[in-house]
Amino acid sequence: MPVAHTVSAYDDELRWLVRRLSEMGGIGEGMVADSVQALVNADMALAQRVISEDLLLDVAEREIYDRAVLIIAKRQPMAQDLREIIGSIRIASDLERVGDLGKNIAKRVIAVHTMAQPKKLVRGLEHLAELALTQLKEVLDAFATRSPELATSIRERDEEIDAIYTSLFRELLTYMMEDPRNITACTHLLFCAKNIERIGDHATNIAETVYYVATGDQMSSDRPKDDDTANVIATSPGD
Amino acid sequence: MTELPLPVKAAKVNARNVQVYYGQNHAIKDVNIDIPSESVTAFIGPSGCGKSTFLRCLNRMNDTIVGCRVEGRIEIDGEDIYDRRVDPVQLRAKVGMVFQKPNPFPKSIYDNVAYGPKIHGLTRTKAELDEVVEQSLHKAALWNEVKDRLAAPGTGLSGGQQQRLCIARAIATSPEVLLMDEPCSALDPIATAQVEELISELRNQYTVIIVTHSMQQAARVSQRTAMFHMGIVVEEGPTDKMFTNPDDRRTQDYITGRFG
């Protein structure tokens, strides 16, 4: 916000939104990172902590909604200010969903560890999570600096996540085909992978919102899409 | 503005290189604007930016101010309104005006509305005049409230009713352009809503130009908005864009409450 408003309380209110959102971003990032760690290390205590942290994001999202509505009612914001407020509401929703997805991964930790997992699979999942977390971290930076350039590059990189997700999907299918006893754990891992891929999508949503807040224009709608899992079919190992 | 804007289709009013001086003070600088017919155009900008001065050029109200000089060309329907052959009184019948404070004549409600048609000789019989008064009060959404007391003084009405009476008076001469200089600034929210509703109705028939200090009002009632600052038009365009994503820094700062 380059120039201050004549009414300084208005600036305070807008700053509050930004601060609360970056807190939400921090919590969401932490939850995702911890849930994947819990999964990798079979750490039940950590998983439990992630599950309980989700409440913080739910509360923060509601607070942001309430304050945003109040600001709109009180200040009748225009132009950039209005976009900031509407953008905050949207980003809060995305971050709350990121928390839900992290929590869902944490909940699956017990089920996944009923069997020993192939190292390679877990490694693949970790890599996917790293990419998604980088996206999340950078999109929060893009929001903090209102950088449309950074937002654009983040959206373009979502392709990578989709490609890795598709290859994980294939691998998990293969393991299930090999031994039906893998099915329970692999299905849970599949959901975990899907959750992480969705986190990447939320980062993309946030990138689009940041771009709109900063420029007043929508990003062009043609974005790369490499999630090819809709076309993946199982073939038995003998084929 | 060095580049002239392209003429808008079906422009009712065209202003080219308009300058206004109050003595030494150069109040309006090189204003170029096209105002489309059958639409509402809002002029916004901080106090002293020249929006009311420019509005008053459009029916030559500035002629009455000593030391005021208008240069450039203002056309309505392609005719230069500052041409020597134009009678300002006739012009003002065609270009009506509503002011900030309701200013009914100290006469009856009926006579307030009948005044314009009478002096311009627009009606021949009493029945015709009655018809014009009733129609104008209908259009101003006031008829139902005053039909039983047309002989009562206009000054006895409430503020909102007085303003609608002034609008009825302005439209009684069948103007083509209606200038409104902060028509709601002295009204309560309900009367304001009634006048805004009326402006939306009037748009179907007239070219309405409104000066307002309320950003929300400009955003609500107008289709195009021009932002004035220090005597120049810094930006002009579709209202939807002006209030969501203006191009000019000064427009952005003004509408978001950062200066002015």
From TrEMBL, chain A:
Region of interest (Disordered), ranges: 218-239
An annotated GO BP: intracellular phosphate ion homeostasis
InterPro entries per record: PhoU, PhoU-like_sf, PhoU_dom
Subcellular location: Cytoplasm
Pfam families, sorted: PhoU (PF01895)
Listed Gene3D superfamilies: Phosphate transport system protein phou homolog 2, domain 2
Keywords per UniProt: Cytoplasm, Phosphate transport, Transport
SUPFAM superfamilies: PhoU-like
Residues of the PhoU domain: 21-109, 125-210
Gene Ontology CC: one annotated term: cytoplasm
Signal sequence bounds: none
Function, in words: Plays a role in the regulation of phosphate uptake.
Assembly behavior: Homodimer.
Xref: PANTHER family: PHOSPHATE-SPECIFIC TRANSPORT SYSTEM ACCESSORY PROTEIN PHOU
Family: Belongs to the PhoU family.
Protein name: Phosphate-specific transport system accessory protein PhoU
Organism encoding this protein: Hoeflea marina
Automatic annotation (TrEMBL), chain B:
GO terms for biological process, alphabetical: phosphate ion transmembrane transport
This protein's GO CC annotations: membrane
Keyword Transport recorded: yes
Classification via NCBIfam families: 3a0107s01c2 (TIGR00972)
Keyword annotations of the record: ATP-binding, Nucleotide-binding, Phosphate transport, Transport
Family: Belongs to the ABC transporter superfamily.
Domain ABC transporter: start-end pairs: 13-255
Protein's UniProt name: Phosphate ABC transporter ATP-binding protein (PhoT family)
InterPro entries: AAA+_ATPase, ABC_transporter-like_ATP-bd, ABC_transporter-like_CS, P-loop_NTPase, PstB-like
A GO molecular-function descriptor: ATP binding
Pfam families in alphabetical order: ABC_tran
